[in-house]
Specification:
single chain, alpha+beta, Aminopeptidase, Alpha-Beta Plaits, 12-stranded mixed β-sheet, binds zinc ion
């Protein structure tokens, strides 16, 4: 039923529209026009102004016949760099860039699959319930667009499906971590290290003491922690006044990630106190966990849609975050489904037409199953 040629043409149109993170204007305009042509009421929110981009999230709503579950389909409009002037090429059923840019199938494959499923449903008079489509900005910049979504202004949602993953549409991400970023700045006292070192307080020593006492790396099967960047110091003959370290903690379990961050903070405070220095700890929630029960309505729907197409559902855990994490954090059950992209965030990125078409078929099955 899916029109594969039209699907590919839509994808080609989309990847030719430059949309590196925070410059999604052209794709947002395309998406708005397309959704309007499909009978959706469409609005663009203020995310663009709030994050310093040139477009907001595009939110479309079609009430259908008003019956059945309310579904939300999501994809992101931005791409990583280098994403300017993409020249798509098709070889043996796979779409590539010309090799000097990314392709941008991440996540325009998700957008194209959503458009095609809705268009197919409409032209075949398949009964549809309420459908919301959300195309976000700046996903690649840290889920910035999704974080700005005001769910209270949106229609109610029973299940949200994000199409923003590599692999098959039978690969259903049902678990992804809660992620908290931590930035620590130790401040000591600078003096000449050759003349009066005893009068100084070395921020590097505070940092070393703190890290030495900290549990990091693999904490347990669902929790990890890391410091990955360090900056500080001016010269070998100066007792270091200031050091900043940047790190993170992740866990599928919110309490565990909070406990880990508390532990890291405590080690920093104790180290600063021991040396008589100061410490400032700033934490920021990057995104919430996805932790869906395999018997939940949403996972059942996604699994059954795959099965209808002869695929075996593969419930997967991710170590990273997508817009689906943000939806879950806002109280909307959301999973992330594969849409056939490969080698994402590289110039070798490619997209299997067959898998993208399969994702579109999955969306069509979800629309049918919601009735
Ligand atoms: Zn993506």
């Amino acid at each position: 039923m899916i029109n594969q040629e039209r699907l590919v043409n839509t994808l080609i149109d989309l990847v030719k529209l430059d949309s590196e993170t925070k410059f999604e204007r052209k794709v947002a305009d395309y998406a708005k026009a397309k959704l309007e042509s499909l009978g959706f009421s469409v609005r663009e929110d203020e995310a663009g102004e709030k994050i310093g981009g040139n477009a907001g999230n595009v939110i479309g709503y079609h009430p259908g016949d008003g019956q059945g579950k309310s579904l939300l389909f999501c994809a992101h409009m931005d791409t990583v760099k280098p994403g300017i002037g993409v020249k798509p090429q098709i070889r043996d059923g796979v779409i590539y860039s010309s090799g000097d840019t990314i392709l941008g199938g991440d996540d325009k494959a998700g957008m194209a699959a959503i458009f095609e499923a809705i268009e197919t449903a409409q032209e075949n008079n398949i009964p549809c319930g309420p459908i919301q489509v959300v195309f976000t900005v700046a996903e690649e910049g840290g889920l910035l667009g999704a974080k700005q979504l005001e769910v209270e202004k949106m229609q109610p949602v029973d299940a949200a499906f994000s199409f923003d993953s590599d692999g098959m549409p039978s690969d259903i991400c049902v678990a992804a971590p809660h992620h908290i970023a931590i930035t620590v700045t130790f401040t000591g006292k600078a003096v000449h290290s050759g003349m009066e070192p005893e009068k100084g307080i070395n921020a590097i020593y505070m940092m070393a003491e703190a890290i030495h006492n900290m549990k990091l790396g693999r904490i347990d099967e669902e929790t990890t922690a890391n410091f990955g960047v360090v900056n500080g110091g001016r010269a070998t003959n100066i007792v270091t006044e200031s050091v900043t370290i940047w790190g993170e903690a992740r866990s599928l379990n919110k309490e565990k990630v909070d406990a880990q961050i508390a532990h890291m903070t405590k080690c920093c405070e104790e180290a600063a106190a021991k040396f008589g220095g100061k410490v400032e700890v700033i934490t920021e929630e990057e995104y919430s966990a996805i932790n869906l029960d395999k018997d939940s309505v949403i996972v059942q729907m996604a699994s059954q849609a795959a099965e209808k197409l002869g695929l075996t559902p593969n419930l997967v855990k991710s170590g990273g975050g997508t817009d689906a994490n943000v939806f879950c954090g806002k109280g909307i059950p959301a999973c992330n489904i594969g849409v056939g992209m490969e080698n994402v965030h590289s110039m070798e990125e490619c997209l299997s037409i067959e898998k993208m078409a399969m994702a579109s078929k999955v969306i069509l099955e979800l629309i049918k199953a919601a009735k």
